[in-house]
Design goal:
alpha/beta, Rossmann fold, three-stranded parallel β-sheet, 4 helices, 156 residues
Length: 156
């Protein structure tokens, strides 16, 4: 009798091999984009002292029905990298709808004064009829529409 070994990722909620590969590829692409973004910011020809640099970084992980592993950690890493580049960073972890609205409003006020603004969001999002929404960590309540419980981000 031999010891039965679990295959790589078998314990991850019964996902198929293709689902695990797609998830791994998405994580790789997000992290690669993040590294490229930081690289280009470092290379940018913006004097660190002359320009106001403001960033809003949001990482939503603890969703009740579909929790995510990386967004909060990624957001903390982005915050640390941006602070090294001279950004004034506002970090929001597991933000609800009102916290998202407040943070975006403050960020908007800051960037209207001039300088460089950078917005980073990691978490669930959805696009419905060309409108992008960030999904807060709080659960959708029965009878509520997406626009009442999510946060409107951008319309194409």
């Amino acid at each position: 009798m031999g010891i039965k070994r679990k295959r790589w990722g078998e314990e991850k909620r019964g996902l198929s091999l293709i689902s695990r590969l797609v998830m791994t590829l998405k994580i790789f692409l997000v992290r690669t984009c993040l590294m490229l973004m930081v690289f280009f910011l470092v290379q940018a020809d913006l004097p660190a002292r002359a320009a106001n640099r403001t960033a809003l970084v949001i990482g939503n992980s603890h969703y009740s029905s579909a929790p995510l592993t990386n967004p909060a950690n990624d957001a903390r890493d982005v915050k640390a990298a941006l602070e090294k580049l001279g950004f004034d960073v506002t970090l929001k972890i597991d933000a609800g709808r009102s916290a998202l609205r407040r943070a975006v409003r403050v960020f908007d006020d800051k960037i209207r004064k001039g300088g460089v603004g950078l917005f980073y969001y990691a978490g669930h999002g959805v696009q419905i009829d060309g409108v992008n929404y960030m999904i807060p960590v709080k659960k959708l309540k029965n009878g509520k529409k997406w626009g009442q419980t999510t946060f409107f981000l951008h319309k194409n």
